[in-house]
Amino acid sequence: MLILKIFRQDEWQALRRDGHSAGAPVDLADGFIHLSTPEQAPETAAKHFGGQDGLMLLAVESDRLGDDLRWEPSRGGALFPHLYRSLHMKDVAWAQPLPLEDGVHRFPPGLS
């Protein structure tokens, strides 16, 4: 199953440079890397990255993450994937720009 991570350009560049990332500031503060399912990702983008351009969308095969991936309820009760270790470049199945068009992030078709 593909799960997704949205990174700002500097976070993406750091992952590529270093080969691993502890995540964005919110991830560091919470002690895990926040991920989303393809169905959850548009809401995540709107809520946490509204109006931001220059984002990267990373896809990760959940099976690659082993026991470090936990599905935990959000404040609204939906289960979200949380990674309790660094994200490694080798975990990333693919990455592509997440364009902002008319104020809305455009996700690749066929993800959900």
How would you describe this structure in keywords?
single chain, 112 residues, alpha+beta, ADP-ribosylation fold, three-stranded antiparallel sheet, 3 helices, 22% helix
Q: Describe it for me?
A:
This protein is of the alpha+beta class and 112 residues long. It has a single domain (2-99), classed as Protein of unknown function DUF952 (ADP-ribosylation fold, Alpha-Beta Barrel), CATH 3.20.170. The protein is 22% helix and 37% strand. It contains three helices and ten strands, in the order βαβαβαβββββββ. The chain has helices spanning 9-18, 25-30, 41-49, and strands at residues 2-8, 20-21, 33-34, 55-61, 69-73, 79-83, 87-88, 92-98, 100-101, 104-105. The protein has a three-stranded antiparallel beta sheet with strand order 1-4-8. It has a three-stranded antiparallel beta sheet with strand order 3-6-5. A hairpin with a 5-residue loop joins strand 5 and strand 6. The longest helix is centred in the N-terminal third of the chain and has 10 residues, at 9-18. The radius of gyration is 13 Å and the shape is globular. The N and C termini lie close together (10 Å). The model has no long low-confidence stretch (mean pLDDT 95).
